[in-house]
Amino acid sequence: MSVIRFLARPMLASSFVVAGLDKLKNVDDTAQQLSPLLRRTSQALPFKTDEKMLARVIGGAQVGAGALLALGKFSRFSATVLALTSALNAYVEWRSADSATTEARTARRSRLLKNLSLGGGVLLAAVDTNGRPSIAWRAEHLAADARKVTGKQFRKADQAVRKAVDTAVGA
Predict the structure, then answer these.
(1) Which pLDDT band, with edges at 50, 70 and 90, does 142 fall under?
(2) What is the pLDDT of residues 85-114, one digit of tens each?
(3) Which residue range forms the structural domain that includes residue 166?
(4) Within this chain, do residues 99 and 145 fall inside the same structural domain, yes or no?
(5) CA-to-CA distance for 66 and 53, rounded, in angstroms?
């Protein structure tokens, strides 16, 4: 792991870990923020939704995925989880924020930009391959190498068969 990754991952993850711990400590506040969203989506879901349980799940996911990202373990998966929670946080905080005054609207916009920036950061971490090619890239290049080798072997076999036919016809 490079020095940049060693420093950047915990820096990026720290915000999610702290936010997740805050959600776990203040489950009632988080549940209240989630309530309008869940009222709309609960009709489409085949099971009963519980705001407090969802708040705990989101908080736990942020703490767990943030810790994994900070440690560099399952970093692509944990970054994807954090990107999803960041998008959810951005939406919920935007909907529940006060917008009555100019200062409140400015604070609301700042929180939205913070959430979008963190989401962008974890999206970059989600596609980071840590300097190693992805499985898709390796498979694509393995197939291309196999086509090259097969083509060369086919041409050699074709030349050998033609030479054998020419030798047999000439004899």
Answers:
(1) confident
(2) 989 888 888 877 777 888 888 888 888 898
(3) 134-171
(4) no
(5) 19
Q: Which backbone phi and psi does 64 adopt, to 5 degrees?
A: -65, -50
Find the Cα–Cα–Cα–Cα dihedral 101, 103, 109, 114, rounded to 10°.
-150
Q: What does the pLDDT look like over 25-39, one tens digit per residue? A: 998 888 888 887 777
Q: Are residues 121 and 145 in the same domain?
A: no
Do 87 and 147 fall within a single domain?
Answer: no
SS3 labels along the chain: CCHHHHHHHHHHHHHHHHHHHHHHHCHHHHHHHHHHHHHHHCCCCCCCCCHHHHHHHHHHHHHHHHHHHHHCCCHHHHHHHHHHHHHHHHHHHHHHCCCCCHHHHHHHHHHHHHHHHHHHHHHHHHHCCCCCCCHHHHHHHHHHHHHHHHHHHHHHHHHHHHHHHHHHHHC
What is the torsion angle, in degrees rounded to the nearest 10, for the CA atoms of residue 69, residue 73, residue 75 and residue 76?
A: -160
